[in-house]
What we know:
It is a single chain. Helices cover 31% and strands 30% of the residues. It has helices at 5-19, 32-42, 46-55, 63-77, 138-149, 156-164, 235-245; strands spanning 30-31, 81-92, 95-106, 112-124, 129-130, 171-183, 197-203, 211-214, 232-234, 249-253, 256-263. The protein has two domains: 5-179, no CATH class; 185-263, no CATH class. It is an alpha/beta fold and 270 residues long. Helix 1 (5-19) packs across helix 3 (46-55) and helix 3 (46-55) packs across helix 4. Strands 1, 2, 3, 4, 5, 6, 7, 8, 9, 10 and 11 form an eleven-stranded mixed sheet that branches. A hairpin with a 2-residue loop joins strand 10 (249-253) and strand 11 (256-263).
Amino acid sequence: MIASPVKGALFQQLNWLIQAPPLLQCVPFEDAGSLLKREWLRHPGLIANAVEWLEDLNPPRRLGLAFEQWVAALVSVSEGLELVERNLPVRDQNTTLGELDMLVRDRDSGKLWHWELALKFYLGTTDHWYGPNSRDTLARKHQHLFEQQLPRSTLPECRSLLANRGLRVDGRALLTRGRLFYRNGHPDTPPRHPRHERGWWLPSHSLPQQQWRMIDKKNWPLPSMSDKSTTSVDTLELIDYVESQSRPVMVCSALRPEPGFIVPVSWPRA
Length: 270
């Protein structure tokens, strides 16, 4: 039984990772998440074993690195997958061309897969999907994933590197998780992916009077984990905090079933 709060939190996060829908459609690449789900369906103890694997490690402070660690744990303790490499740098002489997030062998087929991972949150406006840091956009991340990161294993420099290790990539796969947030929860255009997790956002000057719970960034993937641990603030307190931080703040409230972001008046220009 998962007894400690830390183990319980990890169990919930890994369970979410396996069952959540992808943020982006993977075509023309494969969906790495389907392999994780296959392993979980075959071996229901997968998540508990991954929790034990993670318990001895220090969790990274950056959410994206923590997400990579969760994926590595699930692959490492699975029976049908093998984590061959992680964060493998690809170089051309003294120039680093980038990294391969993961090389994963599917023991069923014998194929070696190049996986790229992304955990992202974007807020939709009339012209762009912006991250809470507005320099990050969905269009830019999509282009980077599909035109640079995933094709990286096809570069001659990478093929040579892998050949020296006795390896050859058979295919490329993408694992994306996260959430898209719509202005006041009502999209002006159809969703980019029919099954993605969704939320809402509002500018600070449009907030109704009610109580709010601010969500720590570590709990952005699964905001419900913050229900008992976050301090409730009223609308004026929340507005003051958001404007003083000059960045979007994730919140939950009793009146909305989905999480949302409250953004300062300067966003996304700041």
